Every structure is written in C-alpha cells, then in structure tokens.
Amino acid sequence: MGFKQKLSALALKFIHMTIRKPKKIKIFGKTFILLPNVFSPRGTLTSSFLARNLGVKEGDYVLDLGTGCGIQAVFAAEKAKKVVATDINPQAVKCAKINAKINDVAEKVDIRCGNLFDPVKNEKFDLIIFSPPYLPGTPKNLLEHAWFCGEKYEIIKNFFMHVKNHLKPNGRIRMVYSTIADVNFLFDILKKNRFKWFVITSMKTPMERIFILEIKHKN
After folding, report:
1. Which residues have C-beta within 8 Å of that of residue 211, sequence separation ≥ 6?
2. pLDDT digits over 129-176, tens only?
3. Residue pair 213/173 in contact by the 8 Å Cβ criterion
4. What class does CATH assign to 3-217?
5. Closest CA to 78 of 59, 95, 53
6. CA 131 to CA 133: how far, in whole Å?
7. Which of 67, 81, 103, 169 is 20 to 30 Å apart from 73, CA to CA?
8. Rounded CA gap, 90 and 176, in Å?
9. Model pTM?
C-alpha cells in the first residue's frame, strides 16, 4: 500500500474502534442509527457524496450492494419502486433494517445478507449502487470488508465480472471511487469487461479526489 492508503486504513480503523455503542447520526436531514462493527458513513466523504448523486429514476428496481448502515438504500427508496440492499456483514444487515424502519421505507427495502451477488441470484436491476471497498489489503474481520478489497482488488474484479448478469437492458451502475485507490486499475477493468462510463461529478479534498461514475455495459 502507498502512504495515503496506509493512512486511510489506520484512520478508518481508529474511527470504528471509537464506536462502542449505538449512536444516532444525521445525514441530509434523515436520522440513522449506527451500530458497532458497521461501517460509518462519517468515516469518509464517499457515502454522503454518493447519497447526493444516486441517479434513481421513478419506478426503478434498485440494488444497493454493500449497504452498510443502509444510507444509500434509504435515499434510493424515495424514488425507487423497490430496493434490494445486501451486505456480507450480518451486523450491517441488522443496522440497515433499523434505519429503513425509522425512515419509513421498510416496505420498499428488502435487506439481505451475503457476499456480492450471492443474495440476488438471477435478479436483474435498473440501477445498481456500489460504494466499493477500494484499499488493497486482506480484511481481518467482517467490518474491514468495508474498506479492504483484497491484495489485488479482488472484490472490484469480481463485481465487474458478474454485474452485467444483473443489469436489465439499459441498466446502469452508480459507483463512487477515490484517487487514493488505483484509478488506472479500475479503468482497465472497465475496458476489459466491455463497459462504457463517464464521470457524473467529483470533489477534491486535501487527501484525494472523489468521483461518481455512471457505468453501462456495451451490449
């Protein structure tokens, strides 16, 4: 890992060590409960930045893959017909269910536990939302799956190998990424798997540039 990647990993570990009991947070006027051992949207700027730029259309059938505390699923449910939210971490699934309920979208959000596309099998979606782990490294526990994607970015590789099987015709992906990660690797994977993409918006911080991609498969 490079210096910025190591610093980010240490900062994330420290932030999450301080969350030892449920806490209430506000994001864009909505209330969320954050449980221990669940990725905090306060840990980075990527979660809130993506939540502002989901690109959900009225009536969309949406997959929020790696939902964490459920922030993207809750905001997506404002317009979506239905949202399926998944996470490998059972504690995150529990947390997301609480947040769907307190934000009055529980009837529209189906929250499932499992890795990548395992919980959705043959289902296809109009929109897939992905806030990926993008630091190279091997997670030591379920929480660290939220920021470590494998030594060789295996999570991101696997996502783009299989995501086309879960997109409806003209389906699209909204994804957040950072220049702290290996951006060239991401673009190479997109090309290799025959995707086209463009940057919706970006923001610069002292450490990184965060950007939102809209991605479609070249059918």
Report:
1. 176, 177, 178, 199, 200, 201, 202, 203
2. 999 998 889 999 999 898 888 898 999 999 999 999 999 999 999 999
3. yes
4. alpha beta
5. 59
6. 7
7. 169
8. 23
9. 0.94
